[in-house]
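Milestone 3.1: sequence recovery, worked example.
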């Protein structure tokens, strides 16, 4: 039971916190994402994929329905963000000694953990509460 509660906490943490980013983009728009894509000569249409990684994926993670698919979406979105915007920072430290991409690394590690571990028994799966 403790293992399943730990998986629930991981899902609520990763999914819930990532969902804030998605809701913010839903309310304020995708202009920063489109600018990042334009800097790499990628079409604006790709910006809408952010909604899958920051809204659909987190919701799936939180409720535990297709949580591994949701975790994959989050991991893919964070990996794309790192590749497009933060790759140069991958070897840098912040002035206070932290890793420059620590937030991204935490989201990526959390999503990969959910992908590998699954949602646990305190989740909605196959249409029923388990």
């Amino acid at each position: 039971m403790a293992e399943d509660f730990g998986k629930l906490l991981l899902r609520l943490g990763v999914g819930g916190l990532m969902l804030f980013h998605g809701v913010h983009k839903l309310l304020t728009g995708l202009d920063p994402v489109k600018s990042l894509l334009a800097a790499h000569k990628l079409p604006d249409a790709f910006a809408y994929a952010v909604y899958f990684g920051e809204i659909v994926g987190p919701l799936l993670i939180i409720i535990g329905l297709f949580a591994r698919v949701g975790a994959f979406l989050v991991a893919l979105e964070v990996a794309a963000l790192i590749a497009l915007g933060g790759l140069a920072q991958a070897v840098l430290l912040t002035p206070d000694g932290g890793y420059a991409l620590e937030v991204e690394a935490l989201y990526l590690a959390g999503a990969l953990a959910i992908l590998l571990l699954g949602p646990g028994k305190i989740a909605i799966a196959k249409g029923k509460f388990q």
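Helices lie at 2-28, 31-39, 50-63, 67-86, 102-117. The longest strand covers residues 124-125.
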